[in-house]
Design a protein that fits this description.
Layout (H helix, E strand, L loop, with lengths): L7 H7 L2 H7 L19 E5 L5 E4 L3 E2 L7 E2 L8 E6 L6 E6 L5 E6 L9 E4 L4 E5 L5
Antiparallel strand pairs: 1-2, 1-9, 3-4, 4-8, 5-6, 6-7, 7-8
Bound molecules: fe (iii) ion.
Fe (iii) ion binds next to loops.
């Protein structure tokens, strides 16, 4: 069970409609539409729903997919992996372990050192810059 549990009405009230669709209804933003696709600021990507630290900018890379991509999570326990057979595909869903919100999917075609691609939705993330005052 997620550490943070809130009612559906609560999530709706605290997220934008676009964020709610991705985070709580496992939606996917259109490729190249997200604000973090070409983001290069040093910092930490947090869960847009609960604020948990999910990815470090040092693990972000250019996947060419149209979604922000990382080769590893900030900590092994930050995310939860769930088998997903929706839309006629067998995929691995990535959720925030703390609040259970949908973040994106994991694919085995990433770069070294992990060979993994965490394909995330910008709408599910909140970048906190390392640069003071940024
Ligand atoms: Fe979360």
């Amino acid at each position: 069970m997620p550490e943070i549990e809130r009612s559906d009405a609560d999530w709706r009230a605290n997220l934008s409609p676009e964020q709610y669709e991705v985070l709580r209804r496992a939606g996917t933003e259109r490729p190249w539409s997200g604000k973090y696709v070409n983001e290069h600021t040093d910092g930490t990507y947090h869960c847009a729903a609960c604020g948990a630290e999910l990815f470090d900018s040092t693990a972000k890379y250019e996947s060419g997919s149209g979604w922000p991509s990382f080769y590893e999570a900030k900590a092994a326990g930050a995310v939860e992996l769930v088998e997903d057979v929706s839309h006629g595909m067998a995929r691995t869903e990535v959720r925030c372990r703390r609040c259970g919100s949908h973040l994106g999917h994991l694919f085995p075609d990433g770069p070294a050192p992990t060979g993994q691609r965490f394909c995330m939705n910008s709408l599910a993330l909140d970048l906190v810059s390392d640069v003071p005052g940024d």
